[in-house]
Amino acid sequence: MPKYRYTTDDGEKTTRGDQPLDLPNDKIAAEEAQRGLADIAKEKLPDGSQTEFRVAVEDEAEEVIYQASLIFKGETAEDMSRARNKKNGGSDQ
Predict the structure, then answer these.
(1) Do the beta carbons of residue 16 and residue 54 sit within 8 Å?
(2) Tell me: the pLDDT tens digits for 77-89?
């Protein structure tokens, strides 16, 4: 069975898996990466107004065969108003 290694970035630190995982194929490895990305977001949010989570999957030859990212950006009504004003050439105060 092929072996895969995951590298994750939770917005604070990047971690490369210690042990490769045995999985049937690239498709399953990519699906596991997607689930892992969702788990990271679930654990880390809410944590500020903007962050990005990433995961990469390497095969046995250490070639990246899949990567994904999830960008979170939250805005309050005040943030949105400030952005609209700035877009329309007004002051952001």
Answers:
(1) no
(2) 998 898 888 888 7
| pTM of the complete model | 0.79
Q: With H, G, I as helix, E, B as strand and everything else as coil, classify residue 58.
A: strand
DSSP classification of residue 47: S
Residue 39 phi, psi dihedral angles, 5° rounding: -65, -40
Strand partners for 51: 72
Residues 50/73, Cβ–Cβ less than 8 Å = yes
Enumerate the β-bridge partners of residue 87: none
Q: Which domain holds residue 19?
A: 3-87
Name the burial class of residue 36, with classes exposed (0-12), middle (13-18) and buried (19+) by CB atoms within 10 angstroms of its CB. middle
CA distance 37 to 55: 7
Q: Is residue 7 part of a domain?
A: yes
On whether residue 58 sits in a domain, the answer given is yes
Tokens coding 91: 């002051």
Q: Provide the number of structural domains found in the chain.
A: 1
